[in-house]
Amino acid sequence: MDIKKNLEFINLQIEDAKKRVGRTDEVLLLAVTKTVDYELIDKAISLGINDIGENKPQELVKRMNHYGDKLNYHQIGSLQTNKVKYLYKNTKLIHSLDRLSLAKEINKRAKRDDLIVDCLVQVNVSKEETKSGIYLEDLEEMIEKFLEFPHIKIRGLMTMAPYTDDEKILRNVFGKTYNAARSIEQNNYENLTMEFLSMGMTHDYQIAVEEGANIVRVGTAIFGERDYSKKI
Ligand SMILES: *Cc1c(COP(=O)(O)O)cnc(C)c1O
Q1: From ligand 1's centre to the CA of 86, what distance in Å?
Q2: Do 110 and 86 contact (CB within 8 A), yes or no?
Q3: pTM for this one?
Q4: How many other β-carbons are positioned within 10 Å of the β-carbon of residue 184?
């Protein structure tokens, strides 16, 4: 796996996508390290990767134990309430805040340590049953409930598009998420920003950037196909 070539290619694609829509702001390339060997992750780090993401909390904790405060850690997959205790302290951003019970648990833990935990609210635009996340029509109401937890700071939205080559569907999902963020922003809530939009993976990150993503979560395009039989 030529990590260097892959990262150069992705960074170029991101820059091109930004140019196509006239963007000059930063896009964070979040390296998704599910099942990836340390040798390859080390290589990515040596080439400038500072942020890594895992979808399983226990795997993220393993990465934290391995790399310590050298990296920023992102919880990108659904988070069971009973796993919050392992990662709320050291996670840079939880991308998958999707229900009240989770908000309550994060807030409870963070309160004891007098911490504020940064979270993105996960939205499910396409209403696929296999995906978690809040439906757009419920978003404002849910966000107002989340705002009752002072040890959580909402800093944007996360979404996953359906796996499809249909550009129209992808643009619709990402565009609607972008618009939802702009609309929530209009309410000028305290203790909330809409500065991050975490959207786009290997298959669709260029389109996500064109539609306003400023965090892309990319695994396969950096590290190659995953082998889920591997243990980290
Ligand atoms: C695995 C995963 C990614 C990265 O997927 P690739 O297609 O390998 O880039 C992004 N986001 C989430 C939530 C994931 O679980």
Answers
A1: 21
A2: no
A3: 0.97
A4: 21
Taking 70 as the pLDDT cut, the residues of the chain under it are none
- CB contact set of 34 (below 8 Å; sequence gap of 6+): 54, 55, 56, 59, 219, 226
Q: How far, in Å, from the CA of 164 to the mean position of ligand 1?
A: 14
Number of residues in the chain:
232
Tens-digit pLDDT profile for residues 105-140: 999 999 999 999 999 999 999 998 888 999 999 999
Which residues lie across from 217 on neighbouring strands? Answer: 30
pLDDT of residue 228: 83
Q: Tell me which amino acid residue 220 is.
A: T
What is the atom index within ligand 1 of the atom nearest the CA of 205? Answer: 9
Q: Which is nearest to 56 in space by CA: 86, 29, 90, 30?
A: 86
Give the whole-angstrom CA distance, residue 31 versus residue 33. 6
